[in-house]
Amino acid sequence: MDKVSSDCPYPGCFFCVMKEANPSKRRASVLKFFRELPCQDDDGQVLPISGLWNTAMAHPNDPEFIELGIFECMSALIWKGLKNRRWLSHDQNIYIPYYAAHIIGSYTMNMEEFAESAVHAGVIPPLVELLRGRLTWVEQRVAVRALGHLATYASTFPTVASHGEILELSIQLAMSSLEIVYSHFYQYVDRRLSYHCDLLTRGMGGVEMESRKAEEWASQLQCWSLQLINCFAFKPEFLPTICKQEFLTKLPGMWGGLVNENSPAGIGLLRTICHQKLGRGPVASCPGIIEALCNIARSSDDWQYMAIDCLLWLLQDPNTCHKVIDKVVPALVDLAEITTLGDHKKLGDSIVNVLQDCIESQGSGRSSISSRTKEQIEDLLSSKQRLKWEKNMPKEDLHIKQAAALVVKLEGNSLFSSGNISGAASKYSEALALCPMRSKKERVVLYSNRAQCYLLLQQPLAAISDATRALCLHRPVNRHAKSLWRRAQAYDMLGLAKESLLDAILFINECSQSNDPDLSLRQNKVPDYAERLVKKQMRAAWLFREAAIKHGGVHNQGDGGDIYGPETDDSEWETASESDMGNDGIGDDDDGDWNNDDERKD
């Protein structure tokens, strides 16, 4: 190199090169460094690579190193690690393939021209070898990340797709990633590779930190595999490979978890598949997927709108409509009052229009609808017509209807308090028939109250339906605390841990933000019963649960507390009926009326 610091023990030190004041000399020295590094066997090579890793993370759009050959250098280093195990095991060289693949992924995640340079530099073949698992799951994670970025761009996707094994490997990795990380790292603390631990925690944590980060990285490994598959799913020619029943049925259960909640994961891929005509047929033929899509569509998941899109596309396709309509309509009817979900506007109107088309197509003989399904759609359309009629009604008549609904609601509250739950539910139904459609706040309360009755009557599906309707009517959407709690309990009764967990967490958030004077007097605003449900469902929805059961880390019973934190005493767990029987706020329309735990037990 042209200039080396007199204090540096390493000839040609990269960090000394970067201190060169003359820009042209510095570029020439960096170019030389990138060319010579893969051929050197000196100690300390991991230091400049880790420095480049930091630079790539901090400045992924800077073209300087791209122009000077960093992709060629990283590709050569990965090949060296794959072919020369003696070199790989020397000094700290074991870290280098990981850093090299990570650098490639960082520089290609934003800029298409960088991705083109990477492809021309030949990065794909060594990344594919890492994807195969030639080293470990840690290198697989960064390889699938980098390949996912390269597959995102129109100009580089064909080269990625030309390596036919990438799609198959990604599908297998998406299905097996959690088990791989669990069995190769998480399960046996004393067998963990030291460099894995260092990469996970950067040397700043113990066993507990390693385990938490391993769960996060396992989720990323799965989600990044799904992201790569999603790039292929936009092309019809790859759908036969993707749409195999073994893989499709597992997609709804693939989610980012609480550690990777920003990824649409399995539901994102399902949405892409359902957008394609060739993809809708296989999805419609898997009953388990349709049921799961309905659950996600009703849930408070951030990706709720994706499930709704899937259901609507399946209904709009004459080749799949008849297969799914009876399962899909109940969920969509519950969601018909939704106005906006994030950036997605007028979802409720879209739902109503699609369901109306289903009725009309039946009249023309293009589809077959059961009498029960037809009745549900017609009831929905009648309610929309009722709303139009009410707009032309005198205000006095509307006030009379509202007052009559209030009287009937109070009768329902009285029946509920006396223990006549079935009678109370009937009164709330009667009140809903009287209550003006535009009185949304009152209708939220009526649906939520009836949901509570259904819970106590051990009818969780009906409770979920009414709680969902209340949450769709509420403003903001999905933020009515009592309905969230009631639906969380109903999901719990059905064993739907993820859906119950999401609702319970949102319920706790609403408790924490409540302005209710009684609630604000508490030192801890989060109800104990909600905390217990969250802990229970976090164990049941634990990312490694299936892998732990398979590998003997937990018995397939109960809520598996032995694998996810200390077990709670089951005798303290309140069932839905026990925890809400004493709730005297059933008829109130404020969001903050929850009794304390002692009162609930009474």
Fraction in helix: 55-70%
Mean pLDDT across the residues is 87
Structural shape? elongated
Count of DSSP helices? 34
**Low-pLDDT residue spans:** 1-5, 555-584, 589-602
Lateral strand order in the biggest sheet: 1-2
> How big a fraction of the residues is strand?
under 5%
Please state the CA-atom Rg, rounded to the nearest Å.
29 Å
Total strands: 2
What composes the largest sheet? 2 strands, antiparallel
Distance between the termini: 81 Å
Q: What kind of assembly state do the chains in view correspond to?
A: single chain
Look at the helices and sheets and give the structural class.
Answer: mainly alpha
Describe this structure in words.
- 66% of the residues lie in helices and 1% in strands.
- The chain is mostly helical and 602 residues long.
- A two-stranded antiparallel sheet has the order 1-2.
- It is elongated, with a radius of gyration of 29 Å.
- The relative contact order is 0.05.
- The model is unreliable at 1-5, 555-584 and 589-602 (pLDDT under 50).
